[in-house]
Amino acid sequence: MSEPEPGLETRAFGRRLRRALDAHGPLCVGIDPHEALLRAWGLEVSASGARDFGLRTVDAAAGRVGVVKPQVAFFERYGSAGFAALEDVSAAARAAGLLVIADAKRGDIGTTMEGYAAAWLEPGAPLECDAVTLSPYLGTDSLHAALSAATRHDKGAFVLAATSNPEAALVQRAADPDGETVAERVAHDVAARNIGAPGSLGSIGVVVGATVDRRSFGLTDVVLAGTPILAPGFGAQGAEPADLSRLFGYVSSQVVASESRSVLGAGPDRLAARIEERAALYRGESHE
Fold it and tell me: What pLDDT is attached to residue 103?
């Protein structure tokens, strides 16, 4: 049997994410070119404006954080031109050494899920990213094609578990007769995908809002051990960097803390400085 190519295990998304978090801290900069921000930045409300917005954000984030998260909806609204803009932004971010999490929240069954997996996770695909967000509400087994593709191509995925919108709790905290919640089942299914993964962090993660009581969803430290956690809700939605350890405790080192408006609202001229300020707060550093 031939020996595996040296360094192959270091390509796994979980390993790459661990290195990014260790080097830069947990801050993830959202790339959300919604209409109000485009106008505030003096850009056109168009695919061209979204592209400029995204590229400027990439320039400001490169070297200051390890991860960016484009919100696909704000590009998709412009049709094919919007997707072309997203392709340029994602490619620029990856070329700059940033990990790109496409916030697409895709979820379907069979060959449709295979199509989504090919679009976002296939090496060389126009929309190629490092990880994609997925919705499990057709059943976590329905995500098999995407999660298998992620593992096969050294990519990642973040599956919705406990989101911060209030109406989600009715579904995500619902429990079976044994007391296992929907969110907990999602986390258990994700953890099973990470068994045998190299390093301390798996490549398949969960989305857990920073403004929810995760334990009330069944998401204890034991359930989440070794699982990457994408945590929106920091910044404008209310959670602050100083809250990270309190909110996530033992698993706080696994958290990708996403901020969008609290960073992007600084505007293009102050964006790099704002990113540095927020990143330093997560690392427990004072920033002059």
Answer: 98
Per-residue pLDDT of 139-169, as tens digits, reads: 999 999 999 999 999 999 999 999 988 899 9
pTM: 0.94
Ranges under pLDDT 70 in the chain: 1-9, 286-288
User: Which two tokens mark 288?
Assistant: 């002059």
> Was domain 8-281 assigned CATH 3.20.20.70?
yes
Q: Of residues 105, 144, 188, 261, which has the active-site annotation?
A: 105
- Please tell me the predicted confidence (pLDDT) of residue 260: 95
Question: Which amino acid is located at 170 in the chain?
Answer: L
φ and ψ at residue 206, rounded to 5 degrees: -125, 160
Q: Answer for the pair 30, 259: CB distance below 8 angstroms, yes or no.
A: yes
Taking the C-alpha atoms of residue 283 and residue 64, their distance in angstroms, rounded to an integer, is: 12
**155 a catalytic residue:** no
